[in-house]
Amino acid sequence: MTDRAAFEQYRPHPWHGLTPGKDPPRLLHAYIEITPFDPVKYEIDKVTGYLRVDRPQRSSSLPPALYGFIPRTYCGPRVAALSAEAARADGDPLDICVLSERPINRAEVLLDARIVGGLLMIDNGEADDKIIAVLYNDAIWGTATDINDIPERLIERLQHYFATYKLVPGSPATVTIQHVYSVAHAEQVVRAAIEDYIALFGQPTEG
Description:
Strand content: 25-35%
Helix content: 10-25%
CATH superfamily: Inorganic pyrophosphatase
Distance between the termini: 22 Å
Oligomer: single chain
Order of helices and strands: HEEEEHEEEEEHEH
Strand order of the largest sheet: 1-4-6-9-7
C-alpha cells in the first residue's frame, strides 16, 4: 500500500487525479486514448489508470480525430436527461474528439482543448455523447469557437466513424447518431457530466 501511495503521488489517475480543465466547460483537458493512426481501440482501465487494449477494430475505418475523455466527468442521469432518446447514460467518462492540424501520433497524452460542439450518439439505448473540440492555440483550428467553424465534411467523417465502428457483419447496428449539436449544448453536456461525477465520487479536495 505504501508503494502504491508513493506511485500515485507522481502519476495521478487520468480519470480521477486530473482536473476537467483550465476553464470548464469551454476550455478542457482531454486525455487521449486513440490517435487517427491506430486500428486498435484502447480504453482507460478504470482501476489502474493505464490504457488497456479494448479490441482491434473489425473494419478498416480509423478515427478522423484524436479521441479520449475529459477527466473527472461521468455520464450519469444528468447527461441522460439531456437526451430524450436515451433511457440512461453509458456510465463512462465523457468522450471527446480533438482536431489538430499537426499529426499527433501518440496516445496517453494530455492536451488543452476548446469545445465547439458534439454528437448525440445512442448506443443500445444509452447516451454516449461525443464532444467535438479543437486543440487550444492550434495554428489552423485554434480560432474555431462553434461547430459551424468546422468543415461539414469533417463532421460527416466523425458521424460515419462512430456510426460504423461497432458494426459486426450479419448483426444489426446498435449505434445511431441522433444529431450534431452546437457549443451551447456541448457546454450543457460537459456541466452535466461534471455534476454527475461529483454526485457519484464526491467533490475533489485538490487539483
